[in-house]
Amino acid sequence: MRVNLQPAYVIHSRPYRDTSAILEVFTAEYGRISVVARGGRRSTRKGSKAALLQPFAPLLVSFSGRTELKTLSAIEAVKGMSAVRGERLFSGLYMNELLVRLLHRNDAHPALFASYDDALKALAGCAVVDTVLRRFEIALLDELGYGLNLSLDGASGERVDEGLRYRYDSELGLVASNGASDRSEATYSGADLLAMESGHFEGAVRLPAKLLLREVLAVHLGGMPLHSRELFRVKAAAVSKHYDVTVSPHVGQDSS
């Protein structure tokens, strides 16, 4: 198997032997693949591959191999995309971790690749982070076959009523809450769910949208926490301690 100039992004990297690296790469036509970049951490007169093999940078990669671990044979940078910077890097790391944890290797997801590409471009710009992440999370769930119907009661089949509250059931989806018997469970207003269905994830919908998608994704992630989320918490705590201030609800807040 030999593939040339495949649009791709590096979503995870780990050292391999003295100068090489094993990469998890998300490609447009082959999905998530593992490749070994021989000499990928070695500097030469022509520069270092490591400078190219960075997350959030669009690439064209060529690889070959018959086993699950392919060999990276060539790499080219795609020019023209702005860099993801600052705290938005944590949102990018969060998306990468979701891809590594939830995608099977060698399953093509061209629509999800396009959604990921759009999300990175939005993070590199001025788009609202919460909106970018919620739309990506929903696209990921749809692509994996776990699509979330935000406007339909999964038990009754009726349209969500904006005046009622709903809870998430891992088998049925969103179902009407039973009131007192569901006090220990998170519930979401029908009005917020319908707003989310229309693509609104800001303002009053911001927190319930984040909590709902976190609850849904937790079912598929199992009990293991997300490292990217913990990294953000550690950084936010360090900043708060350094300046001896309390971080406001909207500054430095984890959107994942």
Give the helix/strand layout.
Elements: E1 2-16, E2 20-27, E3 31-37, E4 43-44, E5 47-48, E6 59-64, E7 69-77, H1 88-102, H2 110-124, H3 129-143, E8 165-169, E9 173-176, E10 188-189, H4 190-197, H5 206-221, H6 227-243
Parallel strand pairs: 3-7
Antiparallel strand pairs: 1-2, 1-6, 2-3, 4-5, 6-7, 8-9, 8-10
Commentary on this structure:
With 256 residues, the protein is α+β, with helices and mostly antiparallel strands. It has a domain at 2-128: Nucleic acid-binding proteins (OB fold (Dihydrolipoamide Acetyltransferase, E2P)). Helix content is 34%, strand content 23%. The chain has helices at residues 88-102, 110-124, 129-143, 190-197, 206-221, 227-243; strands at residues 2-16, 20-27, 31-37, 43-44, 47-48, 59-64, 69-77, 165-169, 173-176, 188-189. A hairpin with a 3-residue loop joins strand 1 and strand 2.
Distance between the termini: 37 Å
Low-confidence stretches: 242-252
What is the general shape? elongated
Helix proportion range: 25-40%
CATH 2nd-level architecture of one domain:
Beta Barrel
Main structural class: alpha+beta
Distinct helical segment count: 6
Strand content: 15-25%
Strand order of the largest sheet: 1-2-3-7-6
Tell me, rounded to a whole number, the average pLDDT: 89
Number of strands: 10
CATH homologous superfamily name of one domain?
Nucleic acid-binding proteins
Radius of gyration: 20 Å
CATH T-level topology of one domain: OB fold (Dihydrolipoamide Acetyltransferase, E2P)
CATH class term of one domain: Mainly Beta
